[in-house]
Amino acid sequence: MPFYEPRDEGEAAEIVGAAAGRSERLRLVGGDTMAGIGRPAQDEATLSARALSGVTLYEPAEMVISARAGTPLAEVQAMLAARGQMLPFEPMDARALMGSAGEPTFGAVAAANNSGPRRINAGAARDSLIGVRFVNGRGQAIKSGGRVMKNVTGLDLVKLMAGSWGTLGLLTEVTFKVLPVQERVATLVFRGLDDARAVAALAAALGSPFELTGAAHLPAGIDGADARTLMRLEGFSDSLAYRIGELQKLLKRFGAAEILDGEPGVALWNTIRDVTPFAGTSEAVWRLSTAPTRGPALAAAIGRAMPARWFYDWGGGLVWLAVASEGDAGAEAIRSALGQHGGHATLIRAPDAVRAAVPVFQPLSQPLMRVTQGIKTAHDPAGVFNPGRMYAEV
């Protein structure tokens, strides 16, 4: 199978243009750490962004950074950390969960809209993405956005590319806004709450003026420990001491909270970010999004239908779910429960046969599918980029 690794955007455009001319279907990859997400590949060749590497712009005072798509994410994060800055949205490292090797890349963060626990405070990756360069399916190099956030009219290509999973174009460069690293990070840990009370506590905290940057719940046994309800706060030490005290008063009906500082708290949030309780197992893993207050009822409904394990992020609005990978990996029961409680589901990890047989991403209504197909045709008329990765019809 042909493997293409362009050294610059111009070479990438030539490769794509030639592939479009002969209707050669391309699998787009960066570090290949999330290759198992989506429907199985229907490609004839691989187009890699790994050689498109290097930071092209970093202005700490303007809090903006640009890098080519194949730049290792760790390289960007190290450069930011040296200046006391960070990516706001806390992208996950999927390698443990997916059992993959390789190196996560900067472009893949945008392509997957890769957003972790801090999303409840800072928004998703797409909310910080302010500029992209990419090669479309005609072999044309396109630039959209810039170095500052601004309102736009018409089709916002920057936001469109975020979460498109390489189906609309090969990202060659991305630009993100960044934020300062906070002086202190502390996590309140409430122990022994059941799911419903835990989500009630998270809702009360998120509805307060004390600005959580993380809100998660690990049910009993999920990682071999007792149930823990977690609330992260960040800021200047004096401000944080006050906010922690006031939050403890607000939540006293849920019991006393332990305070975690330093590395133990960081490690705990990394566990949630990277879904490590489900790493190294043969289970299928689903990512369910719903209204936070409906999370416990949704999980309970699925738990009545089949053996399942789960935990919560985003105040209960994100449910990570592990079930047996046999059959349809619970797809029918999960989407039936979602029909009752609201939300949508993405199958993150499952054997190829399962991912080929069931919808991996949330099924679209016919009107939305027509819009999706129209966008795909406009950007990739020959259908060369990651065909069928998100939907069989696209």
Automatic annotation (TrEMBL):
Highest taxon of source: Bacteria
Protein name: FAD-linked oxidoreductase
SUPFAM superfamilies the UniProt entry points to: FAD-binding/transporter-associated domain-like, FAD-linked oxidases, C-terminal domain
InterPro entries, alphabetized: FAD-bd_PCMH, FAD-bd_PCMH-like_sf, FAD-bd_PCMH_sub2, FAD-linked_Oxase-like_C, Oxid_FAD_bind_N
Keyword terms of this UniProt record: FAD, Flavoprotein
PROSITE patterns from the UniProt entry: FAD_PCMH
Domain FAD-binding PCMH-type residues, every copy: 1-181
Taxonomy of the source species: Bacteria, Pseudomonadati, Pseudomonadota, Alphaproteobacteria, Hyphomicrobiales
Pfam families given in the database record: FAD_binding_4
